[in-house]
Amino acid sequence: MAEAIRHDKTSHQLRLLSDALDSGRLGPVRRLINTLSPAEIGNLLESLPLGKRVVVWGLVDPDDDGEVLVHVGDEVRESLLADMDPDEIVAAVEDLDIDDLADLVEDLPDTVIDEVLKSMDRENRERLEQVLSYPEGTAGRLMNPDVVTVRADTTVDVVLRFLRLRGELPEHTDHLYVVSRRHQYRGRIALAALLTHEPSTPINRLLDAEQPAFDVDDSANEVARQFSDHDWLSAPVVDDNHILLGRITIDDVVDIIRERAEHQALSAAGLDEDEDMFSPARRAFRRRLIWLGVNLCTAFLAASVIGQFEGSIDKIVALAILMPIVAGMGGNAGTQVLALMIRGLALGQIGASNVGELLHKELAVALINGVCLGIGLGLIVLLWFHDPMLSLVIGTALTINLLTAAAGGVLVPLTLKRMGFDPALAGGVLLTTITDVMGFLSFLGLATLVLLG
Amino acid sequence: MAEAIRHDKTSHQLRLLSDALDSGRLGPVRRLINTLSPAEIGNLLESLPLGKRVVVWGLVDPDDDGEVLVHVGDEVRESLLADMDPDEIVAAVEDLDIDDLADLVEDLPDTVIDEVLKSMDRENRERLEQVLSYPEGTAGRLMNPDVVTVRADTTVDVVLRFLRLRGELPEHTDHLYVVSRRHQYRGRIALAALLTHEPSTPINRLLDAEQPAFDVDDSANEVARQFSDHDWLSAPVVDDNHILLGRITIDDVVDIIRERAEHQALSAAGLDEDEDMFSPARRAFRRRLIWLGVNLCTAFLAASVIGQFEGSIDKIVALAILMPIVAGMGGNAGTQVLALMIRGLALGQIGASNVGELLHKELAVALINGVCLGIGLGLIVLLWFHDPMLSLVIGTALTINLLTAAAGGVLVPLTLKRMGFDPALAGGVLLTTITDVMGFLSFLGLATLVLLG
């Protein structure tokens, strides 16, 4: 129970906020909001219907505006930006870190982008332009060019004096990077090592030259995998000539992992992870219509299969009653295999070398399940319709469809991936179309052959 | 394309490994494996069928055994432990960090646990016992008791000398914690601050007293939320008396986030995130049978609804052909709403204060979709069966079922959550049962009234 209570901290804040909003007194709302972190404010704004969202957004401390914009989904961000003057937007975003600003900038109106660029000093403007020159979803786009570098031919004492002169370090700095005269990445020095070694220690001796650097065009997925496989907090990014360009920090990686998980969960239902829970009905409707339209076409395909057996159903109406069971069970079994495959593919755990054994195992599972469930289903049908041949037909059809579901569950996502499609997006629709068609076909076909043949 | 290539680094390793295994020369396999991090080795082991897995596991450097065990799912871990002597297990796990050891210990045989405890020094044994005294899924269980503390009434210089005497800091130390004489948590000092301030600076001036501490019984979900909302790298854990007990680091939080995402994706298909892709068919079958059995019961419920309209289907066989369309489209539409709700509930974004507006929006979307798709469906049915009344019936039934799906999509997960069930696990089954039943009932019922009444 403690779990449930703690877990609902956000919805507790949401309730307090809604009560305060409903009472019409905005003072308490403003005080409540300004005790929260930008991410928490973003989360709350995402939870609010459009009308209330605009009111609350107006009460957020302008100093937090930029960080809040970074922390909300694309669609919610659009609704917040629509409510701001160009001047407000410039003021909100100009102090953001380069990597956050790069993340936002493409959602901003062109005139605002120009203003933001003008308001920046030359160094930062060049950095932003550099980061923006790399495509989305690459290490170059994720990195922050603000890194502290030292040279190897010096001592801890010299570095300490340099750092004291420099003052603050960029956020989440856990290592300094060692570069050559030409700014080529050589390795890194842990802050902890600087603190635990005598001032006279040569930097060379503390150098960790093992830490590899990301190429600027490495994919965000690869970055996330390496970070979580190696438990890194930060990692350097270099270009083709091994020149140090910036560093990626774990907080961005956490965002990638969360977004990817949301993407997987929502794309299975034909939705986008940036979908606003409260997007206007008109807008939500259009997006869903496409998805439902695709599903309607596949439903007609299945219906046309049934249509082929009109005569059989006309003679034995029990077929109509029972046919959705065979089709539906195939869909359920296929979904299980598909879920395992999508996870395996996302982790890179499935390839030509093991797909054969995987298919073999899934077909074996389907066969045992088909026999067990087929016997169970046959017995119930026998009690219901008193026709042993009908029982035999439905049990056999179920087994055939479970085997189809297993083969489809393994091969459909694999084929989609090879063809360059996202298995999480299209896998479910395609697989249930196959199990529907095969369910109706095997059951009605067998029934026609055995019972009416 | 670069994306696809990079992303498949793991499956590339997998192929190399399989080729080497197939060739029977184990030398290259051993060399390949020992270039990988423990997490990567774990990932590869999870990708291997049982026979090959055991061979590769035998080739892993014994020094890595413990870390590899930490990085695999429960079921795969079991298969690896089954292949080790008690002595090997003790040697593998005795050097692990306390938090990792705590994670493993419950999967170990009792005799091995005794051996491990005996092999530890008293301080570490007490720390392990302390961590194990907190339930799984709490901050206490996630924390590592190994923290570096300092007192506030000193200077940077004194702390630097203390750290140089102490030597290495625990992994992922980004802050030192400041405690009172009674070891109560007071705040934290960034390593970066120690490096960038003059030796004479009083520690008091660098103290960040704002960083809150987790209660030892805070839930893992709450820990994950706070870490990602605040971009923390580490955070202290205290007991009821504010005594500092340990600290949680971001790498554990990344694991929680990944596990939770996998749990959500797999539990929708009635699977566990610890499921081994290559678990023996016999074992996999038993687990899936339960899930399919539940689905079989719900399928019978839907079939019994159809059974009520046996007479109508007997007269108009077109009803049998078309009825799965209405039921299936409801299921698809409901799944979309359910996916949004499950995300919203997981983020704490849905509560009593906004569920009304959410329901209102989803019903509006369903109504527009129902009218559009209903007209489309009606037209196609008109072309197929040349019966305007049948078109009217199916269009109306579709709209009714989409409205049912919208209401169910919002209310089913909410109700499940209130009752203490996991909406991601049971939501899909319950919702499609509702849309199946309502789909058949509305279409066959309306047809009986309008066409045969």
TrEMBL record, chains A, B:
Highest taxon listed in the record's lineage: Bacteria
GO molecular function: magnesium ion transmembrane transporter activity; metal ion binding
Membrane topology recorded in Swiss-Prot or TrEMBL: Multi-pass membrane protein
Coiled coil: none
Membrane-traversing stretches: 289-310, 316-342, 363-386, 392-416, 428-452
Protein family according to the UniProt entry: Belongs to the SLC41A transporter family.
Protein name: Magnesium transporter MgtE
Organism: Lysobacter concretionis Ko07 = DSM 16239
